[in-house]
Design brief:
The protein is α/β, with parallel strands linked by helices and about 375 residues long. Helices cover about 40% and strands about 15% of the residues. It has two domains: about 230 residues, Type I PLP-dependent aspartate aminotransferase-like (Major domain) (Aspartate Aminotransferase, domain 2, 3-Layer(aba) Sandwich); about 120 residues, Aspartate Aminotransferase, domain 1 (Alpha-Beta Complex).
Length: about 375
């Protein structure tokens, strides 16, 4: 029996239920279910919070990536550099717009794309870089932006796991040509269903995003291109507006959990703890350790027997998935990470005694 799951939304749901029910009720009474006042206000509030000019609510994080790529003109025959160590949707979106991913191995310390060899991958067909701020920690944005500028590439930030995270004082999702967010329920800002957001500072890109999410038309019945039906629902915008004012506090609470883990687990030689790089705000969407000497699965089973949940994000690097069976890609650092990573229980309201129980169990395993 799992006593401490990896993620448990129940206390949050309970503490917000009154406010959420009231705002959903208001949506029902308004009779406005698509692109009404809640979406409008939520877009304004997130744009202000993230420090960007425009934000657009869409159906999901996957749609945010697809529409973001298309709004930047990425399509057939284009190549987009990204990481093999991420959720599948990152590369799926690239294929869905007709482009092709070029994968670059990761930095073993942050699990994010390694910027040191990126330039060697750039060809005539390369049009963009798609960095993923994995587990809530920022990629090397200065280096990425310098490369993008030098080779005239677009940057699409995948911020699905990093709402509120920062790099040198800038919010993630404010530094690329577009930023793509997911409000899937388990994300650090999530709704009770699917949802996503696209940010940009560019007027023309904003115009394309606005069109693409609504069947390629800015003006109703004046369709200019083939787009999508991809909008954030009013009900989800209303729920997210209850949660947005709390995100700073929740991210801070995640950090406190991370600090307690850090303290309690720092002396175990066979694990490597996540390191928050200087000048970043890591939002610890996941608290992911590396377990050395082939002991990861054994530790996972041990925790399970003690009633503690844990997850492997990600057990298979993307280039090893069946969809890529024709390719002979090898990314040894990502492959090693897939064998060693283990994410421990993490959510803002994770009780302190549960955190201590997790620490105790991990320590016991290694004694
Ligand atoms: C969750 C996630 C997505 C996709 O978001 P959905 O809202 O589930 O479509 C994309 N990229 C990353 C890194 C994610 O974690």
């Amino acid at each position: 029996m799992i006593k401490i799951p990896i993620y448990d939304p129940s206390t949050e749901v309970e503490s917000l239920s009154q406010e959420v029910l009231e705002s959903v009720q208001k949506v029902l009474q308004s009779g406005q279910f698509i692109l009404g006042q809640n979406v409008k206000n939520f877009e304004k509030e997130t744009a202000d919070y993230l420090g960007v000019k425009f934000a657009f609510g869409v159906n999901s994080g996957t749609d945010a990536l697809v529409i973001g790529l298309r709004a930047l003109g990425i399509g057939n025959g284009d190549k987009v550099i990204t990481t093999p160590f991420t959720f599948f949707a990152t590369v799926e979106a690239i294929h869905l717009v007709g482009a092709e991913p070029i994968l670059a191995d990761i930095d073993p310390k942050t699990f994010n794309i390694d910027v040191s060899n990126l330039e060697s991958l750039i060809t005539e067909e390369t049009k963009a870089i798609l960095p993923v701020h994995l587990f809530g920690q920022a990629c090397e944005m200065d280096e990425l932006r310098a490369i993008a500028e030098k080779y005239n590439l677009k940057i699409i930030e995948d911020v699905a796991q990093g709402f509120g995270g920062e790099y040198k004082g800038n919010k993630l999702g404010s530094m690329g040509d577009v930023g793509c967010f997911s409000f899937f329920p388990t994300k650090n800002l999530g709704t009770y269903g699917d949802g996503g957001l696209i940010t940009t500072n560019d007027e023309e890109t904003a115009r394309f995003i606005r069109m693409l999410r609504g069947h390629g038309s800015e003006k109703k019945y004046h369709n200019e291109m083939f787009g999508y039906n991809s909008r954030l629902d009013e009900i989800h915008a209303a729920i997210l507006r209850v949660k947005l004012p709390k995100i700073e506090d929740w991210n801070h609470k995640r950090k406190e959990v991370a600090e307690r883990y850090q303290k309690g687990l720092s002396e175990i030689p066979e694990i490597i703890l996540p390191n928050e790089k200087k000048g970043r705000v890591h939002v610890f969407h996941q608290y992911t350790i590396r377990v050395l000497n082939g002991k990861r699965d054994e530790l996972k089973n041990y925790l399970f027997e003690k009633g503690i949940g844990s997850m492997i994000y990600y057990p298979v690097p993307l280039h090893k998935l069946p969809v890529y069976k024709e390719k002979d890609w090898a990314f040894p650092i990502a492959e090693k990470a897939a064998e060693e990573v283990l994410s421990l229980p993490m959510w803002p309201l994770l009780p302190v005694d549960s955190q201590e129980e997790v620490i105790r169990a991990v320590r016991e395993f290694f004694i």
